[in-house]
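INFO  loader      accepted 1 record
INFO  loader      residues=192
INFO  predictor   begin
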Amino acid sequence: LLKESYKGFHPADKLPEDFVADSKRFWGNIAQWYYALNKIFKNPDIVLTYPDSEIRESLAKNFKKDAYGKMAFVEVKKLDTDNHTSTPSDINRFAFDDAEFLKRQIELISPDIIICSNLPDKAFAIIFNEACEEIYTEESRICYKVGKRLIINFWHPSIRQRQDRNDEDLFYLLRSLIKDGKVFEKFNWFKN
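INFO  predictor   done
INFO  writer      dumping tokens
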């Protein structure tokens, strides 16, 4: 769940045939997060380390084939105003105005896992106003159980490099949220 599009990008647009996920920070992090979630889901006991350059290159090269069709991107701000730096109050207003549409869109997609990209708390509450059970928190990033869904209010994949936060740090934080919080154990996705 993203706040808004960036420079006219729309996730429904067809990716170029020669698309490589690491061409921009956003796609590189998306590919690595997808990799981490899948690895941990398939083997909760895995000792997962940040992918080396060879694995990252493979993830980037195969992203379109392996992952892109298995995910969806929903933007809170539906109107592209060529302003990709909206304030939290702007995003809250868009969430309030389009709450029913956003909820319906999420229901149609029917995801098991939703990663919110640094969504303001108020917008989060507007969109997910049903009972949110907080199941794990680390470094102000929170995992919630909402019905049958895992919702992770996490950093935006394009977070700017800071001295104390880089792509590897984000990978390890996501891993820690899932593994240390044992969040997958809270769901019965495959228990029938």
